[in-house]
Amino acid sequence: MTGTLEKTRLYDRRGVGHSINLVGVPTDLLASCAFNDHPTPLHISGVREMNRNLFEMLARASDLADAGEAFANYMMAMFGIDPEQREDAPHQATGAKRRRYRSSFLRLIKGWGYDSNGPEGAVLKGWAESRFGIFPTFHKEIIQRISSGAWTTYVEEKMSSRFHNNSIYVQLDLLFEFCQWALRCFVMPQQSHLTLYRGINSFDEHQIVERIDKHAVVMRLNNLTSFSSDRDTAGCFGDTILTARIPVSKIAFFNGLLSIHPLKGEGEYLVIGGECRVIASYF
Predict the structure, then answer these.
(1) What would the pLDDT profile of 58-83 be if each residue is shown by its tens digit?
(2) Per the CB 3.0–4.6 Å rule, which of 21, 88, 110, 162 could disulfide with 262?
(3) What is the domain partition of the chain in residue ranges?
(4) H or E element, residue 172
(5) pLDDT value at position 214?
(6) Residue 274 is inside which H or E element, if any?
(7) How do beta strands 240-247 and 193-200 pair?
């Protein structure tokens, strides 16, 4: 462990993200350990105000399952993403009709579960960059600067038209706000943090900013990162386990949020990244 950490490059905080975002907290602060130590609630500007009907329905929910059903019905009505509302689009060359499904947050999260460095993962990282102002650190390879080929690949995939035909960022905004509402109302109303785990085999995706001691380090997590609430599950993805105390306000999605489970891993959480103190230990 120590040898691996000693060979890992340390990164400074330059280029952490945009100077503005949509959550009203300076990006440098949002992406810092100081925010993680003393988090505040995060809300994407205008989402709750523009969707009052949704939150009025949620206020009448008796439990998380009831709230999840209300949320799913609202998303179906707003974005037409259920299987009954498909569009037939003729093939340009042959004229034959083919089924074209409207983009949905469910498809993106399912794709993330299979490969967070695939096209769906790029769109999700692009949403996190747009709303929270934090740059990704990894997509297929380390992203060290905006002018790099790795950045170009990320931008090309995050802007893919097949995922942007149905206000996909707005869908993800609503998902984040619903997730935060559910966490505060039903799942962990009195908690500010949650201990989560991540298994890794290398330190390529998450940049080490500072070594605190033999096992404790400050990492700059990717702008959207998967964690698990179960240490044994995290161990299936790598022989080094990262243990982190994650603010509830940085949780964008978790597997028990909806009755339809788009993520493969049990107890999986999607977390907004930035700098984070972690304990790195062998499984």
Answers:
(1) 999 999 999 999 999 999 999 987 65
(2) 110
(3) 2-282
(4) helix 168-182
(5) 85
(6) strand 268-282
(7) antiparallel
Answer yes or no: are the C-beta atoms of 102 and 78 closer than 8 Å: no
**Kind and range of the H or E run holding 77:** helix 64-79
What is the CB neighbour count within 10 angstroms for residue 236? Answer: 11
Question: What DSSP assignment string belongs to 215-237?
Answer: SEEEEEEEEEEEEES-HHHHGGG
Q: Are 259 and 220 in contact (CB under 8 A)?
A: no
Report the candidate in 249, 248, 216, 208 with the shortest Cα–Cα distance to residue 229. 248
d(CA 181, CA 66): 13
**Is 253:179 a contact under the CB 8 Å cutoff?**
yes
Contact 101, 200 (CB under 8 A): no
Cα–Cα distance for residue pair 135/167, rounded to 1 Å: 21
Contact present, 203 and 242 (Cβ < 8 Å): no
Query: How many of the other CB atoms lie within 10 Å of CB of 230?
Result: 14
CA angle, 239 then 243 then 249, to 5°: 135
In contact, 36 and 245? CB cutoff 8 Å: yes
Q: CB of 232 within 8 A of CB of 270?
A: no
Place of tokens 């929270």: 132
